[in-house]
Description:
heterodimer, A: 291 residues, alpha+beta, 7-stranded mixed β-barrel, 4-stranded antiparallel β-sheet, 31% helix, B: alpha+beta, Cyclophilin, 2 domains
Amino acid sequence: MTTRYTFGGDEFLFVEINEAMSLDAFFKGTAITRELQRRQVPGVTDICPANASYQVRFDPDVIDPQALLTLLQQIEAELGEAQLDIATRIVEIPVLYNDPWTHETLMRFRERHQDPDSTDLEYAARINGKRDVDDFIAAHSSSPWFVSMVGFVAGLPFMFQMVERERQLQVPKYVRPRTDTPKLTVGHGGCFGCIYSVRGAGGYQMFGVTPAPIFDPAQRLDYLRDFMVFFRPGDIVKFKPIDRAAYDAAVAAVEAGTFSLRVRDVSFSLEAFLRDPDAYNRSLVEVLHAD
Amino acid sequence: MPTDSVFAIEVVKPGLATSVQDTGRQGYYNVGIPPSGALDQYALRAANLLVSNQEDAAALECTLLGPQLLFHVDTLIAVTGADMAPKIDGTVYACNVALRIEAGSTLSFDYVKGGARAYLAVAGGIDVPRVLGSRSTYALGAFGGHQGRRLQKGDRLAVGRERGPAREGTTVPEPLRAPLAREVELRVLPGLYHHRLTDESAATFFEDTWAVAPEADRIGYRYKQGRPLTFREREQPFGAGADPSNIVDACYPIGSIQVPAGLEPIILHRDAVSGGGYATIGTVISADMDLIGQMQPNHQARFVPVTMSQALAARRDAQLRLARLREVLLR
């Protein structure tokens, strides 16, 4: 793959690792942006890793645009293909799939959908060759996902499932975007999953909701106390299907301020993962439930 | 209420879209939190300088239809940016001038005669809590500013007690006021996914005149009436989505121009969504970003391609203009 450098006006440098999404491209971008962060370069004000690209905001009064570009090319060359192990964390996110709230919303916007006669889950199950909705939910929740980008709106994670390309779930976005999406909807568009951190417009298919807040300016829960945004690029997410009773109990705990998330530190090796993704994923999930 | 600020302003009518804004917050775009802050940064700084505030103090950004505000303190105010003349107890005063207002007086605004966003600075600065280093409102995230939202009837705002040497009657000289035209040239550095356009569309984008659509706000400005743009046909890369205007979701620079389905270009502004799956074809240069927020629906824009060195020269010109403003007002 050939990295493409291009300026976004006089304050942004945009770097496309690859046109196509892949774990390789994501990891290369992660390695470069982590190294740039470590170097604390004067004039660099925002480092934004994305799925298969990244973006740097800079102050051209402090650092010459061309000098920044040269520096990033140097970092890319120095890192080569070696730096593909990262220290990160794995998080269990409970999900009520097929919930009443996203169902009500998707029914309201049916005329904007490819297939107005089925639900988002039924449509996604069919075009991905799954037997039924339960089979699709099993595929969605059995293997973990990488958070490959945080953005669109505050704290929204884009996620890429850690399975071979032929097993990746793909669905188009709505034909025309909705003007409403319930807060904490678990969505999917293209090959990316997401969790809508706030209520608002959206074009991803809607599969369920999580009771777990992931963005809260008031920082009421323990895992949001350090920062109002929970997710960071490189986090690993494992979805856990829950029923309505468990969902209601979790919402009550959120309201009481006692809800928490299961989060464990892990190290991830791309090489070991690629050798046997399923076995590697099992070992990751074991870390989550080791205690 | 802390002792360094005082309850000063009561919102009688909120206006169309009035919010607390300063120079914005930096360093959180990587988690989807955009800079926010006044869309016309020069006008914000001018308003603050007129009343002896720090240039980056928080002011009220008033869009198209100004608010009605009851003052509970004697203080200095100034209105810059859009031509929305301030009225004190019904008497019309000039924009770009430091004005005295007394406790018990009501400030309202005349209808807008040019531009789209006026900035109301109050001596001491609007005192709301800083969130992530800034007092700016980020409405999508529901934080910053006054309770994370636009002003509403009944809101009560505090201002800082600090007072500078500002004098009533201090004026921004005519040549140093925000330009307010109905037809604007916006300079653009082509790039990002510009290569995805066909040669014809790469040309027509810069040839056509584009009008601001009704959907124009702090997140982005949509333009219409130019010829539709066509992206080169290709086998779409894995994860990019089916439309040729789609890419694998990536970051959006502030000022970047995206054209969903090739139809209506959208320029992202200071409350931008930080990323998404539409190809961006270039970025409005930093020196011209202030002009966008002063455009009303149906105002017209031409996009003019420039090089990086032209963009940097324009940036220096804008800095010199601000330096002259400081010289005049801090004298």
